[in-house]
Amino acid sequence: MEIRQLRHFMAVVTEGSFTAAARRELIVQSALSTSVRNLERELGADLFDRTGRRVVLTEAGRALLPRARSLLAGAEEARHAVADVAGLATGRVAIGTIQTLTCVDLPAELATFHRRFPGVQVSVRDAPVGELTEALRAGELDLAYLVPDAGDLPEGLTPYATWQEELVLITAPDHPLATAGRTLIRDLADEPFVDFRAGTGLETAVRRLAAHCGLERRITCDVTQIGLLVDLVRAGIGVAFVPRRIGERAGLPCVEIRQPEPGRTVVLAGRGPRPRNPAAAALAGHLTGRVTDAAPAAAGPPGGRRPPAG
Asked: Which residues have CB under 8 Å from 95's CB, separation 6+?
């Protein structure tokens, strides 16, 4: 049974004849008659009494009538629902983020997005990079901010925009390096460090930096919350590498690292060249066009528009 056949059936009921029904449906009468005959054959009963000048519903036709109306109304509602989602009157988008994201002011961007598309529900997940990556690949997330361990995204994921974040060394206010302004990696060999949990984007970037420079850090404490890491550094239990904005927001001394200058790559990623979910595509375009404090690298957003430097 096809929606088209039900629509032709209802046209005959409304117009009272096959000729008028065919005119209303903008098809030839023979095509409409064949469509109704196929419906009758599928249901195993005549729907119309065709003996008079005006077709009349049979008992089987009267039994089908309310159900045909209901099915056609449901199909219309389905079309409207799809049109609403495509037009972003409604919809849902799930985005993942690393806890230490600073290149984008995500709360502010989501607030702006909500004002533009108030009917779209946004779900935000904060998790380690590995969990975000798997959730993105599994379709649980539409978008995610990731810090690739080796610089490249896993197979099946696409970068929509890329940023470089500067890492600095934060210290307690009374630490000897607090007023130094800059320091060399080799000068940190004897420093105790507070570290972020393994598997996070920050830990990955710091571990790579230390390995590249031959720095064997002495970890005195590792944590799972960036706020606690900052508080421990403030209390003097150790120093830590963090994105500059985190140190500045905490009001702690931010010491630049020389030789080499450290940094990490943050990628807004999704599946495929462009999200298939209309709400996700709109959010990706919004996020890649509104960067707050870091210049994007080579990868561009969906549609080829590169985000401006913030």
From this structure: 122, 123, 124, 125, 141, 142, 143, 144, 145, 283
